[in-house]
Write a structure and sequence with these properties.
The protein has helices spanning 5-24, 27-37, 42-65, 76-87, 92-112, 115-119, 121-137, 155-165, 205-219, 260-269, 282-286; strands at residues 142-150, 170-175, 178-181, 192-201, 233-239, 244-245, 250-251, 295-298. It has two domains: 5-138; 142-296, Alpha-Beta Plaits, CATH 3.30.70.560. Strands 1, 2, 3, 4, 5 and 8 form a six-stranded antiparallel beta sheet that branches. A two-stranded antiparallel ribbon has the order 6-7. It is an alpha+beta fold. Helix 1 runs antiparallel to helix 5, helix 3 runs parallel beside helix 5 and helix 8 (155-165) packs across helix 9 (205-219). The protein contains eleven helices and eight strands. The radius of gyration is 23 Å and the shape is elongated. The structure holds adenosine-5'-diphosphate and magnesium ion. Magnesium ion is lined by residues 233, 235.
């Protein structure tokens, strides 16, 4: 495998996002997140990433200096032991500052480096072994928000069946309350029950959409027309802060910002969540929307 500059920059950006993502998690999820990633404390994660980058800089600078190129660390345990030793006694704020400085410096070096630096065999070996492997291994699940709606059959049961069907690929962390809402788009049909869930998943956006469509069929959705009555409708509202537009899928959901019946349940879960295209929070998207006819159906 040949690692190019943009791959490395992607890796660095992804690690930056890991740390940001940690900060954005609800406090009661942070410990579980770290444990799953294999770090007892947040400082351990920072120290580890910073450690790699330090070594990365060593490699890149070494490759550039060429004569001084000495680095090769085949023993991960020895490397980790050095990182731990280095981090001991430092507080998290100090580690965080170091992390950021290191990230900027590393990205800068790679941007500045001539192509031969990244093509250097040792740099390549280090990058593929240490960064990419770990990057794959520790690839984070995405945080997603999904909207659920039903206006046919036992509406509440349909919502619950669909939420239960999400596991194990989609792990639900939080559910909004259930709201009864007037039909939208096509008025001559029964009222809807709507809710939203916050979840995490390793599925790609496309795979997630396929899974949601399967669940729609499992719950008994019959073919209907757009905006027509349905046992269950499952939509992807947000997928991290991803912006995506393809033939089958648009993320964030293209109409979420104009639908109070989506935003009201979402407000229960994440009033501060930013719409990555509109640059507004869920709470501010709801401001001024017509919420008449929407009422709480179940806590
Ligand atoms: P709607 O949800 O708009 O009432 P459907 O559930 O019938 O209508 O969905 C129509 C199509 O919209 C789906 O087949 C899907 O391919 C597409 N779609 C585009 N973006 C999304 C999204 N973010 N979530 C769910 N479906 C989406
Ligand atoms: Mg839909």
């Amino acid at each position: 495998m040949t690692v190019d500059r943009s791959t490395l920059l992607d890796c660095l950006a992804d690690w930056g996002r890991t740390v940001e993502k940690f900060h954005r998690l609800p406090a009661d999820r942070q410990a579980a997140f770290l444990l799953r990633q294999g770090y007892p404390r947040f400082g351990d994660l920072l120290a580890h990433v910073t450690g790699w980058w330090q070594e990365g800089i060593h490699v890149v600078e070494g490759a550039r200096a060429d004569a001084h190129f000495v680095y090769a660390e085949p023993d991960t345990d020895a490397f980790n032991a050095r990182v731990v030793k280095h981090a001991q006694g430092q507080n998290e704020a100090a580690l965080e500052a170091q992390f950021e400085a290191m990230r900027v410096r590393m990205a800068h070096l790679v941007e500045e480096s001539p192509a031969e630096v990244l093509a250097h065999p040792l740099a390549q070996a280090w990058l593929s072994a240490d960064i990419l492997e770990h990057y794959e291994e520790h690839r984070l699940p995405a945080t997603v928000f999904l909207a659920l709606g039903s206006n046919l059959g036992d509406r509440l049961a349909n919502l619950h069946t669909a939420v239960d069907a999400l596991a194990p690929e989609v792990r639900v962390w939080a559910k909004s309350r259930v709201y009864e809402t007037p039909p939208w788009g096509y008025a001559d049909q029964p009222a809807f029950l709507n809710m939203a869930v916050q979840a995490e998943t390793d599925l790609t956006p496309e795979a997630l959409l396929r899974r949601l469509k399967q669940i729609e069929v499992e719950v008994g959705r019959q073919p209907s027309f757009r905006y027509g009555p349905r046992q269950i409708d499952l939509d992807i509202l947000f997928y991290d802060d991803l912006v995506l537009e393809s033939d089958v899928l648009t993320v964030p959901h293209p109409r979420l910002h104009e639908r109070a019946f989506v935003l009201v349940p979402l407000l229960d879960l994440a009033p501060e969540w930013m719409h990555p295209v509109l640059g507004k929070s869920v709470a501010s998207l709801l401001t001024g929307q017509d919420q008449s006819g929407i009422h709480l159906y179940m806590e």
